[in-house]
Description:
The protein is an alpha+beta fold. The protein has two domains: 7-107 and 181-200, Glycoprotein, Type 4 Pilin; 110-179, 2-Layer Sandwich (Dna Ligase, domain 1). It has six helices and nine strands; from the N terminus they run αββααββαββααβββ. The protein has helices spanning 7-27, 71-83, 93-96, 117-120, 142-147, 151-161; strands at 45-52, 58-64, 99-106, 110-111, 127-132, 135-139, 174-179, 181-186, 193-196. The strands form two sheets. A five-stranded antiparallel sheet has the order 2-1-3-8-9, with helices on one face. The protein is globular, with a radius of gyration of 17 Å.
Amino acid sequence: MDKKFSISDAKHFINLARRAIEYFNLTGMRYSERPKKEEYMEKFGVFVTLHSFPSNELRGCIGLPYPTMPLWHAIVEAAIGACRDPRFKPLTNEELEHTIVELSILTKPEKVNKERIEKEIIIGEHGIIIKKGFASGLLLPQVPVEYHWDLETFLENVCLKAGLYGKAWKASDAELYRFSAQIFREQTPKGKVVEVNLKKC
């Protein structure tokens, strides 16, 4: 995606995610704070991913795929969701001190022409959403890079994520969407924030 936000912006976003988790754990309520800049109220899809440090073990990943909410508020929602990801035990404030926060700011998903799929979906550039009937699934652009997947494996895994069989994306009633993301993460818990360049991973 075209560069939109700076490292300075990302520090605000990640600190907001941390405060949202801490506040929710203490009160059970949504954290609220005025945005630092007016542009933070633009609508974006966003995901918050949590990793244990230094093991880099996934501890939660939840987000809003579509730009339905101002980014500043969406980060709060995604952070709370990630710390209560049903796949894992709830993340405590004590554990948060040893957790890396990663933020993915998404472009608006666009429909993929499956007949040109090898040109439409580029590993290291695109994430995928699949929709088939009532089932849907999403994988972020960094996932196939981290696991060294080729395109076929990426497509199979997004189908499995949706609870479908691995080749379900080929079905006539299955729709694929692609999106890009600007990804920021802490190098250490509460440490330096960097932008992730998937092409160099």
